[in-house]
Automatic annotation (TrEMBL):
This is Thiamine diphosphokinase. SUPFAM superfamilies: Thiamin pyrophosphokinase, catalytic domain (SSF63999), Thiamin pyrophosphokinase, substrate-binding domain (SSF63862). Its EC number is 2.7.6.2. NCBIfam families: thi_PPkinase. Gene3D superfamilies: Thiamin pyrophosphokinase, catalytic domain (3.40.50.10240). InterPro entries: Thi_PPkinase, Thiamin_PyroPKinase_B1-bd, TPK, TPK_B1-bd_sf, TPK_catalytic, TPK_catalytic_sf. Residues 142-208 form the Thiamin pyrophosphokinase thiamin-binding domain. It is an enzyme of class 2 (transferase). It comes from the Bacteria. PANTHER family: THIAMINE PYROPHOSPHOKINASE (PTHR41299:SF1). Keywords: ATP-binding, Kinase, Nucleotide-binding, Transferase. One of its GO terms (molecular function) is thiamine diphosphokinase activity. It comes from Metabacillus halosaccharovorans. The keyword Transferase applies.
Length: 214
């Protein structure tokens, strides 16, 4: 399985433990200050994107000697550094894309990054945003299995389109049957699996599944 991991420059205290995801086959991509995070962790950095306005000139010059594929972007542009890096990652057609360092800090960047997950509807690549407490994945209509994971206690479902039709949750502490969820509803916050595997399905709309821990 081909996996590309993007590391953006969100607050370091929110960053997941990247060593848990590292493998020799992983392609690591730094986004602006995220490049510095990877180098500090001695994780091989294959590509970097950004205008690098969040690091010093000296640090930027140092990156040029350490990163084989450094893409310096203009500060004035129509996409964020993260979106440009994600578009590149999607163009490589990997099986999985992880986005780290994309939460915390400025709310405009957080909401923008979450909405970038909509790009997963037009690619075969699975895209997840992961931080120290959460894993966020976007789903279109269909039926899906969810396996219990020790590191994630809670599972929430949040509408990202105006309506979710026919949401059914089986194997959850709070089950649902053919339920209509509107944008802005908190009905499906903080659910839990009651066994090793649960299923969820819905007939129309787009929703986020967020796995979290305290």
């Amino acid at each position: 399985m081909t996996t590309i991991s993007l590391v953006a420059g969100g607050p370091k205290e929110n960053l997941a433990d990247l060593s848990k995801y590292h493998s020799d086959e992983m392609i690591w991509v730094g986004i602006d200050r995220g490049s510095r995070y990877l180098l500090d962790l001695n994780i091989p950095l294959h590509y970097a994107f950004g205008d690098f306005d969040s690091i010093s000139y000296k640090e930027h010059e140092s990156l040029k000697t350490k990163i084989p594929n450094l893409n310096t972007l203009p500060s004035e542009k129509d996409k964020t550094d993260t979106e440009i890096a994600l578009d590149w990652a999607i163009s490589q057609k990997p099986d999985q894309i992880y986005i780290f360092g994309a939460t915390g800090g400025r709310l405009d960047h957080l909401l923008g990054n979450i909405h970038l997950l909509i790009k997963s509807t037009s690619t075969l690549s699975k895209i997840d945003i992961i931080d120290q407490q959460n894993q966020i994945t976007l789903y279109t209509s269909g039926t899906y299995k969810v396996k219990r994971k020790i590191e994630w206690d809670y599972i929430s479902f949040i509408a990202i389109t105006s309506d979710i039709h026919g949401l059914t949750l089986d194997g959850f502490k709070y089950p649902l049957k053919n339920c209509h969820i509107r944008l802005g509803s908190t009905l499906c916050i903080s659910n839990e699996l009651i066994g090793d595997v649960g299923t969820f399905s819905f007939q129309e709309g787009i929703l986020l599944m967020i796995r979290s821990r305290d």
